[in-house]
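Q: Here's a chain of 173 amino acids. Please give me its 3D structure as tokens.
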Amino acid sequence: MQNLLNILTIIILTNLVCSCAQNNSNGKQTQNANTKDNISTTISEDTAILGQLLDLSVYRPTSAKFKYAFIDNSGQNQRLSVPAPSDSFLEAILYFDSLTFRKFKTSYFNADYVSPNFNKEEFNFDWLDKNIKDELIKSDTTYHGHPDFYFGIGKSGKLWLLDKKVLVRKSTT
């Protein structure tokens, strides 16, 4: 099972790295990939790639930006001689139209879940634009919501709601 997970992770990572070299139709580069030792980091705006990391099928964003880091602990690199489970980290901002965001908030707040008590500083990603960081600082800290949106059954992450935007954190550690 672990080997299958490692193979799938390598396939996804390979797709991420290959697609990072592509540009969108207006010539603006939307992906940036960096690999050092056993850590591969990608910053992208490609929702197709993000859809491989999160379940975007119910509340699809109009656009997104994310940073994904994969730490390969398979033992196939020179840094580790003994295999261990690999780790990954995802930080994302999802942008929505008004109608989709309203539906999302209705479902999110109606979920039967105790307050997750997230700290908004966890969502102050270093790559966010200043205006998003300012909105985060001024955002409401009292809401209660369901942490499993976008993550799938049995998996979890964290969400923080802004105005027609959702900040996402997810890790395998």
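Q: Can you summarize the key feature?
A: Residues 73 and 107 are 37 Å apart (CA to CA).
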